[in-house]
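agent> fetching stored inputs for the flavin-adenine dinucleotide docking request
agent> found them:
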Amino acid sequence: MPGADLAGVHTFRDSRDVDLLLALAAQKKQIVVVGGGLLGLEAAYGLAKAGAPVTLIHLMDRLMERQLDAPAAQLLKSLVARKGIKILLDANTARIHGESHVEGVELADGRRIEAEAVIFAAGIRPNVALAKEAGIPVNRGIVVDDTLQTGASDIFAIGECAEHRGICYGLVEPAYEQARVLAQHLAGDAACYAGSVVATNLKVSGVNVFSAGDFLGSDGSESIVLSDVRHGTYKKLVISEGRLTGAALVGDTNDALWYLELIRTRTPTIKMRTDMMFGRSLALSSEAA
Ligand SMILES: Cc1cc2nc3c(=O)[nH]c(=O)nc-3n(C[C@H](O)[C@H](O)[C@H](O)COP(=O)(O)OP(=O)(O)OC[C@H]3O[C@@H](n4cnc5c(N)ncnc54)[C@H](O)[C@@H]3O)c2cc1C
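agent> prediction call returned; pasting tokens
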């Protein structure tokens, strides 16, 4: 991107970046965060909490589109805005202005936002250079099969750099699952990694957010929704063939891990369907009745 090499343009990856962001916030610098995913929201919240005026710019029409459906994202947006963060959606960053240092960000639609610093949190891409040089097949990540083996025998890849069945995971849990399968495989046991049911269970900008599985609701599924915007709560459960297959929660995430267990174990939920939304204890007691 034009201007990305100006002084004052940063990323958010490690503890050195965090020290730098804290210093910027202490100086009350006007900051633009590019990216409305998990990391961008975390960076924006940290900076706003430390006293910096923050504008968050996101390319898509809703925040955290990979984890939340439209109503959940809308609720999150209003809760985050209350923390003093200005949010611009459908905002495509075209260039960064400045002589030697950042002075502003220009969007593709011509809008310009004043800024003394810009933080990029707009996604990660695996560094596949080493594998590529070694002649190992790569796409977005280093391609692995169900035993986590790359295209070369006796060379394996796990974690953020690996691409399994077309997916590069950007969270810790799939990497742990891959590590377990690979350890079994290397120990000579039959083991197969079939992919991970990704779950997000975090405080995003101080707001509890959980999502897992088919949270959008694919064809043939049905959704049960409880929405109480005034109290900052949104819950959506997706059901398919008598089983919970996805969930998205904002605000009240008390039953998140139970929902995740139901999704992962493919537990039949027909008997608890009516009460499942209201939590584990009620649902299990009605199932037993
Ligand atoms: C700010 C931030 C917050 C996050 N929060 C969460 C969270 O709350 N929950 C969650 O699940 N995930 C979170 N993540 C994502 C999570 O950190 C990553 O998914 C996870 O660290 C990936 O693990 P990994 O071992 O595959 O890669 P990494 O943790 O990146 O480790 C790879 C290591 O390999 C080293 N390396 C690279 N190339 C070479 C080479 N050629 N030779 C030798 N060493 C090399 C690197 O220096 C690095 O130490 C967060 C990430 C960031 C940046």
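agent> quick read of the result: The first helix runs from residue 15 to 26.
agent> awaiting further instructions
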